[in-house]
TrEMBL record:
Protein's name in the database: UBC core domain-containing protein
Disordered: annotated span: 1-32
Keywords: Ubl conjugation pathway
Highest rank taxon of the organism: Eukaryota
Keyword Oxidoreductase in record: no
Organism: Emergomyces africanus
Annotated signal peptide: none
Length: 104
């Protein structure tokens, strides 16, 4: 019998990794410039946090991120990006984001 104390299900965590130069592409890919992507690579997207549900698949999450990137019309970082990146030392799953802009 499988048990889950407290019936707690956590959202998956996405982390970008760096590959050694001999295995990485010759031209590194930059972190996309988007109003919901911080310059350290942390993505502020509700379905990666509070809106995540166990019914979502890797494919549906990737499609949501792709849709978010493709629909972007603003070539800018989130407000307070430099301060957030300089001060934040938490794992993405431990950050409490406030999702107030669904237009980009």
């Amino acid at each position: 019998m499988l048990t889950n104390p407290g019936n707690k299900t956590e959202a998956p965590e996405v982390q970008f990794i760096s590959l050694p130069p001999e295995t990485s592409p010759s031209t590194p890919r930059p972190i996309p410039i988007h109003p919901h992507i911080y310059s350290n690579g942390i993505i502020c997207l509700d379905l990666l946090g509070s809106a995540w549900s166990p019914v979502q698949t890797v494919e549906s999450v990737c499609m949501s991120i792709q849709s978010m990137l493709a629909g972007n019309t603003k070539n800018e970082r989130p407000p307070g990006d430099a301060d957030f990146v300089a001060r934040n030392r938490q794992r993405p799953r431990d950050i409490r984001f406030f999702y107030d802009d669904s237009t980009v």
